[in-house]
């Protein structure tokens, strides 16, 4: 252990997305290759001597208790746990931990020694995995609010690969078998669903971890919500969501020492007539079983919406993935300007 193929794969995956900035300690991790990376895992991260590193992925993560702080993490999957090696910025953003971390770190601020905090979720504590729409993100749920984490991969391939690796590792776990199911009759099987709403598609793994995928109704609900935001929409049934993608909105700050830009996470939704940007809550829905009250904000909050027919041009950058797109709209304050002009000119 480990095989050459696995080491090559982990080395290839060990690349920080170019558009995201990370701390020096995580840059050090990203510079490790092959056997050095595996040795780093065993000497610094692994909790048990005989656990094997199976998968590595870089992703933005959100914690249930700090839903507004998106932080970069190196996600390491082993045969015992999922490890989230976190950026330093999270330590300072989380008030509950800041005192503890600052006290520990005070001695090594001026040295070449860099410390990251590592969050561990043991596979035995894992209860369910919720996969987001179009595999753009997934949420891992443990037994308490501290153990709910969303990985915003913004990439269906990365999501799919991680889920496949996680299922393979969970298959190795020796858990006590579930009790034999009680035979249900026809009426109790089909009569118990009194909610009138179709449940999400669930796959219960042999380790008893639930993998929950969104169903068609979730897209229908989203289309209805989008329709509510569109003024004067007459043909509701024909509204189709053509594209749903997790992206960043670039806010450019001019006049500073150097022109800088910040990336604001947004959900971009394209319909046949409009382009929308939403602020989406990726961590609170569906509600965990222990939640006492609904989240403070809705799952989707409209940030911006423009009509496609007002789109003047689209500018594309020439850099490699991720691609930067600039949408230029006609800056017309009154959307029905032509109609009003006609009335004023020809009507009484």
Automatic annotation (TrEMBL):
Residues in PLEKHM2 PH domain copies: 114-178
Stored InterPro entries: PH_domain-containing_M2, PH_NISCH_C, PH_PLEKHM2
Organism: Cettia cetti
Protein name (Swiss-Prot/TrEMBL): NISCH protein
Superkingdom, natural source: Eukaryota
Compartments where located: Cytoplasm
Gene Ontology CC terms, in alphabetical order: endosome membrane
Keywords for this protein: Cytoplasm
Keyword presence, Manganese: no
Principal cellular location given in the protein's record: cytoplasm
Lineage per the UniProt record: Eukaryota, Metazoa, Chordata, Craniata, Vertebrata
GO biological process: Golgi organization; lysosome localization; regulation of protein localization
The Nischarin C-terminal PH domain, residue ranges: 241-347
GO MF: kinesin binding
